[in-house]
Write a structure and sequence with these properties.
heterodimer; A: 136 residues; alpha/beta; Hypothetical Protein Ychn, Chain: A; five-stranded parallel sheet; 5 helices; globular; B: alpha/beta; 32% helix
Chain lengths: 136, 119
């Protein structure tokens, strides 16, 4: 057996429900899934933020101050830190008037990965090439 | 026969999504398919024992126990359950407690994956 590719499609906005957070945390859990698989087996996740889901990517979120919970920005940073590929739909960012300088990154934590702003066509390719699509 | 893995995120009360998920799991198991059920978020509520069946509200304890007897593997997200005040000692016997990687591992060997009840 080989790798199974999973596309985590996050389309829900932050904080209105738990859904977007769950999408990211489920994806991050790929880090330890090998414990439950046979040698040589693994899952390869890619997170895709589309629609209102792109709002999860804004930096300087104040979730701890306002809600007393860890921000989705922090979850995203943790995802980048464990080398998760996180794609953000370019067209949807433009639709909300969000410029690239307002998008979170994890440079301060030493992450090599960055959020990848890509055209929707690229997200479509990821979905088509994945074994399973998980919609959050 | 195939393997179906479902994740349920809806609450037991206030939505019929969980009722649907349990019926679908039962139907798939009856046809001979291997079924895995991952309970996350508000879906963890169905794993609590001693549910009282009031006629105005859905109840899941009996159908869950029937699914377990049919060999359906059911696992609840431990963090989601604890955050909702559900302790392992209160869980329906036979339901596993684990973390999100359990779900991803089950997906690895699945033919189909369904998400039910995300809000």
């Amino acid at each position: 057996m080989s790798n199974v590719k999973l596309a985590f499609l996050i389309q829900r906005p932050p904080y209105k429900s738990e859904t977007a957070t769950l999408g990211i945390t489920h994806a991050i859990s790929y880090q330890v899934v090998e414990m439950l698989l046979e040698d040589g087996q693994n899952v390869i996740p890619t997170v895709c933020m589309v629609g209102e889901g792109v709002l999860n990517c804004l930096k300087d979120q104040k979730a701890m101050e306002n809600y007393g919970v860890m921000s989705i920005e922090s979850h995203i940073k943790n995802g980048l830190l464990v080398d998760l590929d996180i794609l953000v739909c370019k067209e949807d960012l433009a639709r909300f008037g969000i410029s690239e300088d307002r998008i979170a990154d994890a440079e301060d934590m030493g992450a090599d990965k960055k959020l990848q702003i890509v055209p929707y066509a690229e997200i479509q390719k990821v979905m088509e090439s994945s074994n399973h699509l998980l919609v959050f | 026969m195939g393997t179906l893995t479902m994740a349920c995120f809806a609450s037991l009360v206030g939505s019929k999504s969980l009722d649907f998920a349990l019926k679908l799991a039962g139907a798939a198991a009856d046809k001979g398919h291997k079924v895995n059920l991952w309970l996350s978020s508000n879906g963890t509520m169905i794993g609590k024992a001693h549910q009282k069946h009031l006629k105005d509200y859905s109840t899941a304890e009996k159908p869950v126990m029937e699914l377990l007897k049919k060999g359906v593997e059911i696992c609840t997200c431990e963090a989601c359950a604890l955050a909702r005040g559900i302790q392992k000692t209160e869980a329906i016997e036979g339901i596993q407690w684990n973390a999100m990687h359990w779900y991803l591992a089950k997906i690895y060997n699945s033919d189909r994956v369904l998400h039910i009840g995300g809000e």
